[in-house]
Design brief:
alpha+beta; Alpha-Beta Plaits; 4-stranded antiparallel sheet; 8 helices; 4 strands; 55% helix; 10% strand
């Protein structure tokens, strides 16, 4: 029943935003590094973050003929990556990791990308000079990915691990915010 709820939640997310998240329990006997390596091969369009209590979150930005097909192909890819281990899904973010170190790390990485987008002079017609300067000033003191990882290693209850690769570059949320700023200035 949990698997059906998890997939149903993911389909609803995909229908609403084109993005969806699947949460799985880390299979016993599989290290974090091995898991990340396996998922990078079959789920290259997903951000993989390791949360607390052996939970792995995969945030997909996958296009298919329908939300159901996108989620179905993601489920198949996860199961292929984790074979021969059985895959146990959680019903959704609300179930276990709503205020987790995983989400804090995700928010920090996304905030940094958002600041980069605001500071980028390529967005000059859209983002005013004072906003770009403020974003640049904030980035000067924003923690690097290495610093975030070190905080995780020291205080794992505060921040989750940094993903081995960033899937945020050019993400639709940042693009939508830049477009909203452009529309508001018209």
């Amino acid at each position: 029943m949990t698997t059906i709820r998890a997939i149903s939640n993911a389909v609803q997310q995909a229908a609403a935003s084109g993005r969806f998240e699947l949460l799985v329990y880390l299979p016993p006997g599989l290290s974090d590094a091995e898991l990340t390596e396996r998922l990078a091969v079959t789920c290259s369009d997903a951000l993989v973050l390791l949360g607390s209590a052996g939970v792995v979150a995969l945030e997909f930005s996958r296009e298919a003929g329908s939300p159901e097909l996108a989620v179905d192909s993601a489920v198949r890819d996860i199961e292929q990556a984790l074979a021969p281990h059985p895959v146990r899904y959680l019903p959704g973010v609300e179930a276990n990791v709503k205020t987790s170190p995983y989400l804090r790390t995700k928010a920090l990485v996304q905030a940094k990308e958002f600041l980069w987008a605001l500071a980028d002079s390529a967005n000059a017609p859209v983002v005013s000079q004072p906003i770009r300067e403020q974003a640049q000033a904030l980035l000067e003191h924003f923690p690097t990915l290495l610093e975030i990882q070190r905080i995780h290693e020291t205080l794992p209850e505060l921040l989750g691990p940094v993903p081995p690769f960033s899937r945020f570059s050019g993400n639709s949320e940042t693009i939508n915010v830049i477009e909203a700023i452009r529309d508001a200035e018209r």
